[in-house]
Specification:
heterodimer; A: 114 residues; alpha+beta; three-stranded antiparallel sheet; 4 helices; B: 379 residues; mainly alpha; two-stranded antiparallel sheet; 13 helices; 4 strands; elongated
């Protein structure tokens, strides 16, 4: 029984993991800080754990897709992330690929129903 | 934030960042403080702002974030494995080669060492024409166990070193050109379907060896083990090959081999052993009959034959006293008369040589037949 649940969880996680980078990139056109991003994604129906998001942001920055800046103006220092030009390029490409994939998927399901 | 909450938060942050590399620690610490602060505010806004209720909110937040070790794991984008997919195959291949070499070297070194020990083992024997046993042959088994122990510990050591090296390579992402992927194309399936051979292509794929041409790995291993055992016995305790005769409570052991001058013969045994092991290893590596196996068997047969000729013909390896002793104990039996006149050093030598040659010829014949009948050759 436990194995079934494990399998389900891991498959689900794989599915979500695939969309994670794209979801995050899509929001980073304007500077945002970590927790605000968590909240805005949640509002839009994309659940994400802070302890997944924060390391992801770091990784994307390391890969050159995002840039960061510490804002010390407010009540507490905040790290703001934003897409780089390279990040914009990649985002557009990924988005296009996603739409193709989604269209393809639709086709597959349609045929199944028939 | 109450001092207590602050303390709790700092403890949590410390637990996360201690697993991270030094450069990241400060920044991640700040990030986490930011995050936890935000989450705390959110929680406090949700619930009432009373002192009692806000007492538990930090715990709530930290529980939501989960185990600090798990959190730290997500920050570590370095491989969560010792040797990854990129290096795994190379590592295995390398390990196999190095470990077999190590094992072979250790065995050989042990044999040589044993030979040196064997020469002063002779003081246990008293000689007056024949050796009389005073100490048991229990000497051999601890020796063999010792060899096995050395091989195992040497191999484990090598395993550790090679694995360590590859783990470092993995971390450094060093490009290994050795087994680098080259362009795959049709010519890899062998038989030069396309003239050009650029790296791996379908044209390069060797034809599958015929089922009947396959060499059983277990046979090759058995050959190696047998060779080593026989070789060890001959080299270390030639006294074992002896006629044991008990009379009046006295056990007399008549070695069949010329123990006194055994050092003259040991180089040939060693060489013969070496050739046999090389041949068996080659067969093991290739795995099926073919031109290479055939050549190896022929070469091995010839070289072994040379060693045996040197061994037998340069000087008689037989204990000169064996035959006189045999005459003595068998002399009373009339039927033995004919047996004794015919058997001496010469005839024994020739018989043994004949058997050895016969075995070699059979091996070569089998290899030749399998090659010609089912012959396929890896390119």
């Amino acid at each position: 029984m436990g194995e079934e649940k494990d399998l389900r969880d891991s498959l689900l996680m794989e599915l979500r993991r695939g969309t994670l980078v794209l979801s995050v990139l899509s929001q980073m056109g304007t500077p945002k800080y970590g927790y605000a991003l968590v909240q805005s994604l949640e509002e839009k129906g994309v659940e994400i754990d802070p302890n997944t998001l924060y390391p992801l942001l770091r990784r994307l920055e390391k890969q050159g897709l995002l840039q960061s800046q510490w804002e010390t103006g407010g009540s507490k220092p905040r790290k703001y992330y934003q897409r780089t030009a390279y990040g914009d390029e990649i985002f557009v490409e990924l988005k296009g690929q996603w739409q193709q994939l989604a269209a393809g998927m639709e086709q597959l399901w349609k045929e199944e129903e028939l | 934030m109450s001092p207590r909450d602050k303390e709790l938060m700092e403890r949590y942050i410390y637990q996360v960042i201690r697993h991270l590399p030094k450069e990241q620690r400060e920044e991640v610490g700040l990030e986490l403080a930011e995050l936890i602060g935000d989450m705390l505010e959110e929680e406090e806004a949700k619930g009432g702002a009373t002192e009692e209720e806000s007492a538990g909110t930090m715990e709530k937040v930290l529980t939501k974030l989960g185990s600090p070790a798990e959190f730290a794991k997500k920050y570590q984008d370095t491989s969560r494995y010792l040797i990854g997919p990129e290096y795994y195959d190379t590592w295995r291949w390398f390990l196999k080669i190095v470990m077999s070499c190590t094992a072979a070297v250790v065995v050989f070194a042990s044999i040589v060492e044993g030979m040196q020990l064997a020469s002063w083992h002779k003081e246990n024997w008293s000689y007056d024409g024949i050796y009389t046993l005073e100490v048991g042959n229990a000497w051999l088994f601890p020796r063999l166990l010792g060899v096995i122990g050395s091989v195992i510990s040497a191999c484990l050591g090598i395993f550790a070193v090679v694995t360590l090296v590859f783990a470092v390579l993995e971390r450094r992402k060093v490009k290994l050109d050795i087994l680098e992927e080259k362009q795959w194309s049709i010519s890899d399936l062998g038989d030069n379907f396309t003239g050009k051979k650029k790296g791996w292509t379908p044209g390069n794929l060797a034809p599958i060896p015929h089922k009947k041409a396959m060499l059983k790995r277990s046979e090759c291993v058995a050959e190696i083990v047998f060779s080593i055992l026989l070789g060890s016995l001959l080299l270390l305790t030639p006294e074992i090959f002896a006629i044991r005769y008990s009379e009046n409570g006295v056990l007399t052991v008549v070695p069949m081999l010329n123990i006194e001058q055994w050092h003259l013969f040991t180089p040939w045994i060693l060489l013969g052993l070496l050739f046999a092991i090389i041949d068996s290893c080659l067969c093991l590596a290739i795995g099926h009959y073919g031109k290479t196996v055939l050549v190896s068997k022929v070469v091995n047969g010839l070289l072994s034959l040379l060693c045996m000729i040197a061994f037998f013909k340069m000087q008689s390896p037989w204990n000169p006293d064996m035959f006189s002793y045999l005459k003595k104990i068998l002399g009373d039996i009339p039927e033995a008369g004919g047996f004794l006149t015919n058997w001496n050093g010469e005839t024994l030598t020739n018989v043994v040589l004949a058997i050895a040659v016969a075995i070699s010829l059979v091996e070569i014949a089998v290899a030749a037949y399998k090659y010609l009948r089912y012959g396929v050759e890896r390119q």
